[in-house]
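Quick one: structure tokens for this chain, please?
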Amino acid sequence: MSTSWENLWLDASYEAGPALSGEHEADIAIVGGGFTGLATAYFVKQLFPQKRVVVLESEFVGFGSSGRNTGISGATLGHSLLRLQKKHGTEPVARLQQLSLQSFLLVEELIKKHHIDCDYERNGLLLVAENEKQLRLLEKEAKACEEVGAKAAWLDGNAARSMFGGLDVLAGLHHAEQATLNPARFARGMKRVVESLGVEVYESSRCTRIECGRTARLQTPGGAVRAPVVVMATNAYSNPLGLMRRKVVPFYVYNIATEPLKKAQMDAFGWPKRPTVFNMKHMFWVIRLTADNRVVFINNDALYFYDVDRDYSHRPRQYQNHYELLVRMFPFLNGIKMTHHWGGRIGMTLSFLPCVGRGGEHGNIYYSMGYNGHGVAFSQMAGKMLAALIAGEDSELTSNMLINKAVPGIPTALFSYLGINGYKMMYRIDDWLLS
């Protein structure tokens, strides 16, 4: 199954499962068949093998953010630990860093344990400084990493260029505990795993309405599920309760992928260990390789639109802008074909941190949203947290700073649009000063 926007990750045959039909009773109903929903189903089944768990996916597994990202599994939350440290303090970010590392290792564990074929490659991440201003910022980032316990190796210019020679960078910061994968294949692999445990995954089953109560009723076009526990696993996409509306705000990010590189192009990059490469700006670019040596590239302008209920996933002008920047940065790619292009939402919060918890009048609505572009790894830990919350555990999984934290929001659509885009303008000015 493919899509109209030619998503590389979804460019493979896939037979979707059945839609929900008729009336059902379950112990736990999960809205959303992406990373979070499938991870929650998995970890609930680890704790309660006997419970009936139903997952409702509006389209097909991996349709949303889980299948539209850049396929980077990281051991950090946020593009910059320095910025998180400034916002939240050293000690809280250090605790979050340990949680992020566990999230990253959890992805590896799931892939290895269940033999999920998703082109997983632990190739690291390289932050690069392209000029003196960025070099000074990178030095501060390296210090923040040390203070919060993130493993990152400082590389001088020669060492950084030996790892990625496509740019004449002044220095780099290498995070070894980062990886790339095909996210849609990972999601589909997790679907296979949870179904083998007895989880029922219904695709083409959009939850259109929830009647809350001690036992909730979830309505779809073809049927309904009654369950005493409901999990909202929709991240940046809308949910029937309107949960976290204007608190987790949808930004659109666009990816392009090229045809496989020829040997001369690979040699020109000088990319022997194949790390994902980021620059230091707020509106950063990212470049990574796929298993068959395609370049996947984004220029993370992260667009926010007034009407958050419309779908802006397909933006041809954005794809062309990305392509032109890619070829301008790496002239030896001139003439390379762009074979795939796609966009999708990421869920952002004002704190730049995810929000996980429970709520509702009867305390039986659970949620995890707002991964701020780092959901590939953290969504797996979020699923584990949600399962622990449902089980009533008292542990680090249920008592860390992300659980039931206050999530600030913006009261109206107009204020959201003006405030968020005004904030982005400040970021652009900062980026211009770093140029």
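The domain at 22-415 is CATH 3.50.50.60 (FAD/NAD(P)-binding domain).
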